[in-house]
Amino acid sequence: xxxxxxxxxxxxxxxxxxxxxxxxxxxxxxxxxxxxxxxxxxxxxxxxxxxxxxxxxxxxxxxxxxxxxxxxxxxxxxxxxxxxxxxxxxxxxxxxxxxxxxxxxxxxxxxxxxxxxxxxxxxxxxxxxxxxxxxxxxxxxxxxxxxxxxxxxxxxxxxxxxxxxxxxxxxxxxxxxxxxxxxxxxxxxxxxxxxxxxxxxxxxxxxxxxxxxxxxxxxxxxxxxxxxxxxxxxxxxxxxxxxxxxxxxxxxxxxxxxxxxxxxxxxxxxxxxxxxxxxxxxxxxxxxxxxxxxxxxxxxxxxxxxxx
Length: 308
Prior knowledge:
This protein has two domains: 5-163, 2-Layer Sandwich (Nucleotidyltransferase, domain 5), CATH 3.30.420; 205-284, Actin, Chain A, domain 4, CATH 3.90.640.10. 35% of the residues lie in helices and 29% in strands. The chain has helices at residues 52-56, 93-112, 129-141, 152-159, 205-224, 232-248, 278-284, 286-303, and strands at 5-8, 13-20, 23-26, 36-37, 40-42, 48-50, 65-66, 118-123, 145-151, 168-175, 180-188, 191-200, 254-265, 268-277. The strands form four sheets. Strands 1, 2, 3, 4, 8 and 9 form a six-stranded mixed beta sheet that branches. A three-stranded antiparallel beta sheet has the order 6-5-7. A three-stranded antiparallel beta sheet has the order 10-11-12, sandwiched between helices. A hairpin with a 4-residue loop joins strand 1 and strand 2 (13-20). The termini are far apart.
């Protein structure tokens, strides 16, 4: 009997794991990391790149690189690319996601030394039936039999072993790369029950990154009169450096963003060199943080829980 794997199909990164001796083990991918970027690129030579290699080449292949596709799961009209075609084809969110799942499947097979055909896949708790069906379809396209679709907060509770503890009520606050959900769970006798859930399918780390990008675009335009928002390659470089700056500001009070040769003017090459403080970053993203509060309070209210 083949072993089933557990897959967290994320907006930004994805993870695959397997039970070994009753404990979950995250499988390291062929690149040696525990997370795989949910990025798919169609190289000009016809090769399809997935994960870190796809992310690395995004700057020079912007229009043929798909990312954050989970935000469009279940949208019947959505296609990649948004306009035009990639080698005469346009892809659904399921087809792009299937490429990520195929990569995870291959990595799991390499680790286990056997074929992987069965999987349990997680989704945000507030995903509707259409989005859940689309996720299952992505698995089927990837050659996986999706045994179950499990809510991400439930999976988190199981991963922390909370189902093995005494009866309790816990709150899971899950702010991912592209989606946000908050869930109240009641745990008792090994059973995890979702009492209430709320969230926002279009709120996540990507939005925090975008605020830094917008800030840098404005600063550069004010300084040089050049709009980087019209340069797709420059925008991709800004996105990547914005994510790094965000991560750095979690530990530091200030970071320097330096992008040499970001663009050129009649006088020659132009460079971007900006400082960003944590205080500035918090000010730029204050409204995004406030957007988390509504779903949080609504979930508490729907569950009929008193907050002490």
